């Protein structure tokens, strides 16, 4: 059928947050045809943020976070099944069970998976974990509940910091290791990362920044520790690998879509692009897997692993596929949160390319502050540590590209320009 | 019953904690803990929490849905 005809069959590939919210948007936009959701896990869509926090502390069961949904019985769930190939000419998917599934419109929301440990044989050791699925979280929870002597967390990004903080809440010795100079340095820069690192250190996390693990030591199928590149050996009876995520795009190989390990490319409407840069108007993508030009950042293509973005972009993509007229370009402001122990880190905008940062509210010494990031004289991102109520005001500056440094000041300090610092990106 | 909270929106006004103290709690200064699967019998309590949220961050799905 032509791209402008009314679709009768819509397929959503990916049964995570983006797939679910996209499917809901498709129904909410009035689509009454057949709607199928394909997911390679056996579970209905569930919320992942609790998996690295309250599931690990044991306060929430791993199987308790199924997402609320407005979908009724008029949806076909194809679970424990993955998409294997995409034939855009014939408009059909081939599934991992050998079936073919035709579509008139397709929503791609296959998300990411945990980036595996660099040595595949060591990744298979029984006490080496990563966290992506609720089954991952359940097995790590069971291991932490058995009171290990020392946990080694490799990777001090958001998930690594959350896991390290959980270990301290459980009173477990934990070592957090990363080649960066401070935790969260890739996301927030060393200047702000160092403040957050001090908070973790103050809570008893053994921070090993600027260190790299060469390989894991093991015996009888279990890791016993890690040998660092400088030769030091750290003993551990649990290892958590938190090295970020890899996008699930392999199944699009051969489809002619522009996709790689960084995501599938989309135009500024949200339609996917083929290898020659032409949009396929029968397919949209949303969530972690979608790489799209963000107008706030000069049209730079970004793929965002953010909960709020998965919701916003999926709603947009769902309505797009049903044929609604939507504002172009898609331009939702990126935002995320991370709960590290009882500390909340929130952000609005993207710090990439920042050339300056300033503490504009609060004080890192009180472990409560807002940092504003600038690039070429404009505000591009704001990060709040235990200061959520102040963030929206700074998010507005980011969304409107307000001048940096800001010309007004926070209510908690005298009227003067904040100290401008190097954000410390490598 | 299924509950999720948009923690981007949450600003720790803690109204949910007063409305449904068995299911919502603030740790530290502003870290919200919530139970994503409250008992169906406590629908009224959860609805009170949902309505009390100043930033409307709480989403609930009824058990029968």
Tell me what you see in this structure:
Chain B: Keywords: Electron transport, Iron, Iron-sulfur, Metal-binding, Transport. Chain B: This is Ferredoxin. Chain B: It comes from Methylobacterium persicinum. Chain B: It holds the Pfam family Fer4_13. Chain B: InterPro entries: Fe-S_cluster_ET. The complex is a heterodimer of chains A (426) and B (65). Chain A has 426 residues and is of the alpha/beta class. Chain A folds into 3 domains: 9-113 and 246-322, FAD/NAD(P)-binding domain; 116-243, FAD/NAD(P)-binding domain (3-Layer(bba) Sandwich); 342-400, FAD/NAD-linked reductase, C-terminal dimerisation domain (Enolase-like, domain 1, 2-Layer Sandwich). Chain A is built from 9 helices and 28 strands. Chain A has helices at residues 17-28, 54-57, 120-123, 134-145, 158-169, 185-188, 190-202, 307-322, 391-400, and strands spanning 9-13, 34-39, 76-79, 83-87, 92-95, 100-102, 105-108, 112-114, 128-129, 151-154, 174-178, 206-209, 213-219, 222-228, 233-235, 238-241, 245-247, 259-260, 263-265, 271-273, 279-285, 290-294, 300-302, 335-340, 343-349, 356-363, 368-375, 378-385. A 6-stranded mixed beta sheet of chain A has the order 3-2-1-7-21-20, covered by helices on one side. A 5-stranded parallel beta sheet of chain A has the order 9-16-10-11-12, with helices on one face. Chain A has a 5-stranded antiparallel beta sheet with strand order 24-25-28-27-26. In chain A, a hairpin with a 4-residue loop joins strand 14 (222-228) and strand 15 (233-235). The termini of chain A are far apart. Chain B has 65 residues and is an alpha+beta fold. In chain B, 23% of the residues lie in helices and 25% in strands. In chain B, the strands form 2 sheets. Chain B has a two-stranded antiparallel ribbon with strand order 1-4. The model of chain B has no long low-confidence stretch (mean pLDDT 94). Chains A and B meet through helix 8, strand 24 and strand 25 of A and strand 1, strand 3 and strand 4 of B.
């Amino acid at each position: 059928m032509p791209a402008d005809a009314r679709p009768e069959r819509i397929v959503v590939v990916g049964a995570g947050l983006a797939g679910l919210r996209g499917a809901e948007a498709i129904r909410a936009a009035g689509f009454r045809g057949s709607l199928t959701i394909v997911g390679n896990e056996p579970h209905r869509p569930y919320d992942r943020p609790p998996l690295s926090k309250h599931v690990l502390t044991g306060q929430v069961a791993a199987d308790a976070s199924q997402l609320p949904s407005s979908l009724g019985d008029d949806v076909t769930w194809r679970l424990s099944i993955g998409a294997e190939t995409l034939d855009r000419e014939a408009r059909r998917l081939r599934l991992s069970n050998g079936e073919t599934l035709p579509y008139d419109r397709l929503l791609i929301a296959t998300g990411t998976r945990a980036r595996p440990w660099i040595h595949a044989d060591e990744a298979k050791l029984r006490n080496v974990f990563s966290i992506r699925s609720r089954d991952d979280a359940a097995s790590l929870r069971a291991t932490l509940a058995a009171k290990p002597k020392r946990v080694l967390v490799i990777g001090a990004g958001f998930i690594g910091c959350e896991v390290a903080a959980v270990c301290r809440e459980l009173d477990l010795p934990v070592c957090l290791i990363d080649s960066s100079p401070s935790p969260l340095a890739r996301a927030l820069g060393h200047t702000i990362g160092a403040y957050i690192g001090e908070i973790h250190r103050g809570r008893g996390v053994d921070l090993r920044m600027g260190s790299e693990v060469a390989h894991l030591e093991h015996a009888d199928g279990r890791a016993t520790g890690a040998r660092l590149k400088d030769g030091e050996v750290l003993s551990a009876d649990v290892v958590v690998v938190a090295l970020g995520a890899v996008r699930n795009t392999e199944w699009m190989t051969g489809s002619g879509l522009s996709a790689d390990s960084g995501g599938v490319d989309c135009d500024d409407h949200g339609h996917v692009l083929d290898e020659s840069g032409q949009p396929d108007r029968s397919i949209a993508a949303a969530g972690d897997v979608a790489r799209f030009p963000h107008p706030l950042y000069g049209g730079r293509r970004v793929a965002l692993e953010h909960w709020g973005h998965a919701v916003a972009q999926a709603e947009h993509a769902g309505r797009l596929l049903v044929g609604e007229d939507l504002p172009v370009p898609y331009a939702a402001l990126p935002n995320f949160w991370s709960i590290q122990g009882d500390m909340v880190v929130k952000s609005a905008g993207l710090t990439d390319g920042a050339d300056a940062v300033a503490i504009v509210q609060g004080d890192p010494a009180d472990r409560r502050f807002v940092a504003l990031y600038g690039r070429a004289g404009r505000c591009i991102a704001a990060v709040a540590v235990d200061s959520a109520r102040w963030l929206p005001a700074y998010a507005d500056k980011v969304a409107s590209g307000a001048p940096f440094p800001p010309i007004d000041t926070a209510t908690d300090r005298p009227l003067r320009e904040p100290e401008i610092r190097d954000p410390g990106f490598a | 019953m299924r509950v999720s909270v948009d923690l981007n929106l949450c600003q720790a006004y803690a109204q949910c904690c007063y409305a449904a103290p068995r299911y919502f709690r603030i740790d530290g200064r502003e870290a919200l803990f919530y139970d994503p699967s409250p008992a169906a019998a406590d629908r009224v309590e959860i609805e009170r929490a949902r309505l009390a949220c100043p930033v409307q961050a709480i989403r609930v799905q009824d058990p029968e849905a």
